[in-house]
Amino acid sequence: HPDHLFEYEKLSQYVDSQQEQYVQTLRDWVAVESDSSDVLRRPDCHRMMNMTAEKLRVMGGMVDLVDIGIQELPDGKTVALPKVVTAQFGSDQRKQTVCVYGHVDVQPAKLEDGWATDPYNLTDINGNLYGRGASDNKAPVLAWIHTVEAYQALNIELPVNVKFVIEGMEETGSNGLDAMITAQRDTFFSDVDYIIISDCGWLSRRPALTYGTRGNCYFFAEVEGPKQDLHSGVYGGTVIEPMTDLIGILDTLISPSGQILIPGIREAVAPLSDQEWKMYQDIEFDIDNFKSKIGVSQLMYNNKVDLLAHRWRYPTVTIHGIDGAFSGPGTKTVIPAKVIAKFSIRQVPDMDPAMVKKQVTDYLNSVFAKRKSPNKLKVTMVIGAKPWLAETKHPLYEAGKAAVKRVFNVEPDLIREGGTIPIAKTFEDVTGKSIIMLPIGGFDDGLHSQNEKMSRYNYIEGTKLFIAYLHEVAHLKKD
Ligand SMILES: NCC(=O)N[C@@H](Cc1c[nH]cn1)C(=O)O
Ligand SMILES: [Zn+2]
Ligand SMILES: [Zn+2]
Predict the structure, then answer these.
(1) Residue to mutate (ligand 1; options 36, 218, 388, 420; most atoms within 8 A of CB)
(2) N or C of the chain: less Cβ packing under 10 Å?
(3) Ligand 1: residues within 6 Å at CB?
(4) Whether the Cβ atoms of residue 379 and residue 360 lie closer than 8 Å to each other
């Protein structure tokens, strides 16, 4: 329907008038501790999916809560996966159909981690709304819902059909979602023209369009020794300690200057093209600002191109933690009997998760063998999420530029994202449809960190951006 009159001003004023209601809904959603990584919180994840479905039902959407089965836990037990919410608004075959993907599960957060406010009580400080999941990804999901609501409230016809796929396991690798997408390829997804994901942030204060995400291969490396924890005075010096073995092998993954030491990994990475170098060179990115935001005095690189390239399009290794290690306050003198390291490798084109799994497992086994330790090492890959890369010349990106121009009156940055949207590549491969990532989060939202926030400005102007974006997509030529 390219010819409809676009009543942007009216819609925009309506969004402004609803700001307090939007904040209250976000408060209600943030209050649900939908941490998908903690099975004890699974009832909250189920409640979060029900709340999402209910919200869309009240709006008159055709809503389904899709059962995607069970999750197997490391101890062999099983637990139900949160259902996936699908919804549909409009089915006019003359219109484009977009499918908005988002998630309403969150990373863990505790006040004791160093939050200034209760992570599950959305708190407004100077226009910033602090709470776990505020930016990742509850406010962006709500901004999309408010987009449809705004059209409905003003009785303005939606310029495109809008579908939603909202899940509750993104933060742990989107367990079960691949199979659901494959199963519904010829049903729910059959009339979808484009997929839109708003689960990332801007690079600076300038709005951005995102054309790539890194993948993530997440590993557990378990070293098991004595049958139980031991007194370090009584037994220290006589046993070969699992923790020493584990730290030893972990230290062979990456050099102090950031070089991945696992054979074959660096060789698989697509080389940086001249065009990429030029693009990165032209992007506005303040290194001092970046350093002060995260509170460090020195970075791995001190020029913009290297920093952006290593954030977006080179792999990296992160060691996240060690399960079984003594980490409480005080000075317990123990030799832990079994320790499990958790580390991940963000991967990029042309790396492949199956290959990374083999490279890491073979390498760690060979490094461990050289230690001639009697302890047992077990390496498992628990998440293998692929990277995703789009063609920025696609009309979806031209539409994005026009929408950003209308709402913010600037040209957006074209950026990549260092984080992972595990399902992005599957969406593209299974449905054959193009994806755009249209972020509304701020560059300093503190995703996964203490004091995560979403600003009122980004929440409200972001909703307007989505409204404008639907109008632009309606103008694209239907295949
Ligand atoms: N907002 C996207 C995001 O944070 N995604 C997670 C997904 C993930 C990857 N490995 C485990 N979870 C991320 O950490 O990038
Ligand atoms: Zn997210
Ligand atoms: Zn996240």
Answers:
(1) 420
(2) C
(3) 136-137, 170-171, 173, 199, 216, 218, 383, 385, 419-422, 447
(4) yes
With a cut of 90, say whether residue 2 has pLDDT above it.
no
Predicted local confidence at residue 479, as pLDDT: 62
In 10 A of CB 173, how many CB atoms?
A: 20
Known binding residues = 103, 136, 171, 199, 448
Domain residue ranges in the chain: 8-213+387-474, 215-270+313-385
| Higher pLDDT among residues 461 and 2, named by residue | 461
Name the residue among 202, 203, 200, 184 with its Cα closest to residue 192: 184
Query: Count of CB atoms within 10 A of residue 75's CB?
Result: 5
CATH architecture of 8-213+387-474: 3-Layer(aba) Sandwich (3.40)
pLDDT digits 0-9 by tens, 90-102: 999 999 999 999 9
Show the tokens assigned to 23. 């904040």
Arithmetic mean of pLDDT, 220-229? 98
pTM over 0.90: yes
Residue 154 · residue 164 · CB < 8 Å: no
According to DSSP, the residues that pair with 166 across neighbouring strands are: 85, 102
Owner of token pair 């628990």: 382
Same CATH fold, 215-270+313-385 and 8-213+387-474?
Answer: no
Enumerate the β-bridge partners of residue 316: 346
Out of 105, 241, 413, 417, the active site residue is 105
Cα of 385 from ligand 1 centre, angstroms: 9
Cβ–Cβ under 8 Å, residues 82 and 48? yes
Cβ-contact 224, 375 below 8 angstroms: yes
pLDDT tens digit sequence for 121-155: 999 999 999 999 999 999 999 999 999 999 999 99
Alpha-carbon gap, residue 479 to 477, rounded angstroms: 6
Identify whether 170 is a catalytic site residue: yes
